[in-house]
Write a structure and sequence with these properties.
The protein has 107 residues and is of the alpha+beta class. The chain is built from 4 helices and 3 strands, in the order E-H-H-E-E-H-H. Strands 1-3-2 form a 3-stranded antiparallel sheet. A hairpin with a 2-residue loop joins strand 2 and strand 3. Helix 1 packs across helix 2. The longest helix has 32 residues.
Length: 107
Amino acid sequence: MRLNHGRGVLRRLANIEDTHVVSYSLRKLTGLGLVRSAKQGKEAFFSATDKEREMCMAYRDVREACLMPGFTGSAEDNAHIGELAQLLCTLPGRYDQAARAAFTSQS
């Protein structure tokens, strides 16, 4: 499966406020041969290369070797890990929302 995204979409997906950080990172990743860019009109779209996919799979193997020994690998464990991951993904957004609400109520 190939995904092509522009800088704006990547910035929102990664929850990064500064577009310059995304642009800098994409330049570095492109230079390393991990992503490729294709222009469509004025917009540049980025996709992963085979080299990046291989690196991600190697990282996955190391991550699983380090994190998974305490888990059985059962469907129940995997479901529990998935629920925890989902919760961890929602927490930053909730903290951001609470901070904005606190700031707004003091203004």
